[in-house]
Give the backbone structure.
Amino acid sequence: MSQVTTIVGAQWGDEGKGKITDIFAAKSDYVVRFHGGNNAGHTLVVNEKTYKLHVIPSGILHPHATSVVGNGVVVDPAVLLREIEGLERDGISPKLKISQRAHVIMPYHIAMDEALSNHQGNLGAGSTKRGIAPVYADKMYRHGIRMGDLLEPELLREKLTKAYEFNKRILDSLGFRFDATIEQIFELYCGYGTQLSKYISDTELELHKAYKHGKHILFEGAQGMSLDTDHGMYPHTTSSNNVAAHASVGSGLGFSEPGRVIGIVKAYTSRVGQSPFPTELTDELGEQIRQRGHEFGTTTGRPRRIGWLDLVQVRQAVRTSGLTDIALTKSDVLNGMNKIKICIAYSINEEIHKEMPASLSKMRNAKPIYVTLDGWAHTNAENYETLPAQLREFVAFIEAEVECPISIVSVGPARKETIIR
């Protein structure tokens, strides 16, 4: 096992990263979330019990591993506390550390997100309205509030006053009502600081020492490649970088070897939010896949848009994240289908594109070019060799097209329903 392993989504998120992270966490000393906020959600099924996590890394179910919320994550303290309380009710004592440098989602960020989404219209991303974009904006404006600030009331008040005034003026100018006062927010967040103080620390230094001592570190990405703010389908993206290289930036750990980088690819494609979606299925088949795959947002509950597997998208993920291998998930959802389509390229204004265009107008005009393969009846198997031949052909086809090996095939939601080649 590599000392450093990074798991990232290779599509639009919701690929099953939580399950794969949970499996690798069994052999890891640290599991680190390095970007995003509670706009992401990971669902785990362990011993027939379902866990839904939004901020805490999926490794939290392994008592030997330390779960780290890195500096690149933005934290809503109320959501985090609810997650901790939920785990404790299930008898899990979280071995959790939160970077003192992670930025804090404030009430005015959530209000600003609502106002921003209304303003953006067709150029929006279909925001979860959890305050993610505004808190990252405040981070770059340099008047953000960090987790460590919650432990220093005088500093918190100083920074809150400036940040509040700035955001309140914008909200007022947009005619958006926001009534919470500085004093109300100050008291509330001082309380959060008291409750979370035992978890907040210099995680960057701890990870550095752990790396130097040969500890195994697993980085858990959120969302997916096409939502990366630089490399994804901008502006229909999230507000953080999702590519594997951001693991170092979002954790503060400078590691010299890239280690293993696993991209999670679902056997089809899903998307929450708005953007061009070349392979989208809006017919009965799309609804069938949605229901069979339980394709509803972990965070919002919104029904996900469904489409055939898009290898133009996956090809870009292989390149930009430097994937060493792929984990293919949810192959069982396609059980029983006679024929399965895979998009290998786009036709855009009568030109063939095998790589993802940066142009939004081109993506709006993209038409999928499909290859049709035989489907498989089931995914019942003890090892890779006993999987149906059609599924193994599906795997081989993807490997050849994107030039990256598939080392893991998930054939169901449970830990045991995972085939490692």
User: Anything to note?
Assistant: The chain has two domains: 4-91+203-420, 103-196.
